[in-house]
Amino acid sequence: GGTQRTIYRVDQSGRQIPMWTVNENNEEGVLAVVSADPRVQVPAGSAVGIIKYHTLSSKTQITLCGSNLSLGLTDYSHGHEVNFNGYNYRWVMSKNTMSTNTLCLKTDGDRLLARWSGKPEGRGDSSLIFELFVPPQTLDMDLLVVTGLASAGYWKKANK
């Protein structure tokens, strides 16, 4: 069985704009992230990102816009590192809570770029929330969503 969820961009007026659709196949351990608007999907019908979790190991295989990425555990195993276009990024747990319900995207210099929350405060549903702390044009949004979902999915699997 599988599930489908939509990730929305919320503008300053609070209006929600569908940006990505996440299709999850639980039996095969695969997530496919596609553009919510098929007109902007390049090439047509292809996934923005594919995340495959290996059942017998902690390995996570990511394809982002046709390129293979490696998502490796950080030195202290409290997050994941990814290299993209010559830049190193880290999805790490909050040092305050060490909870896998909140992950932060940081640069090598420890600059906070974004945060993912699996269960936002005051919300009963399991919305996918990405908060951005830098202008959107300074970060590849597909990278943000695909690697964020991959890291969050890893911890969900590891905590079972």
Q: How is the topology of this model organized?
A:
Elements: E1 2-10, E2 16-25, E3 30-35, E4 49-53, E5 60-64, E6 67-70, E7 72-73, E8 79-84, E9 87-93, E10 102-107, E11 112-117, E12 129-132, H1 141-158
Antiparallel strand pairs: 1-2, 2-3, 3-4, 4-5, 5-6, 7-8, 8-9, 9-10, 10-11, 11-12
The order of strands across the largest sheet is 1-2-3-4-5-6
Kindly report how far apart the N and C termini lie. Answer: 19 Å
Number of helices: 1
Number of domains: 1
| Level-1 CATH class name | Mainly Beta
Average pLDDT across residues? 84
Structure commentary:
This protein is mostly beta strands and 160 residues long. It has a single domain (2-158), classed as Beta Barrel (Porin), CATH 2.40.160. It is built from one helix and twelve strands, in the order ββββββββββββα. The chain has one helix at residues 141-158, and strands at 2-10, 16-25, 30-35, 49-53, 60-64, 67-70, 72-73, 79-84, 87-93, 102-107, 112-117, 129-132. The strands form two sheets. The chain has a six-stranded antiparallel β-sheet with strand order 1-2-3-4-5-6, covered by helices on one side. A six-stranded antiparallel β-sheet has the order 7-8-9-10-11-12, with helices on one face. A hairpin with a 2-residue loop joins strand 5 (60-64) and strand 6 (67-70). The longest helix has 18 residues, at 141-158. The relative contact order is 0.15. The model has no long low-confidence stretch (mean pLDDT 84).
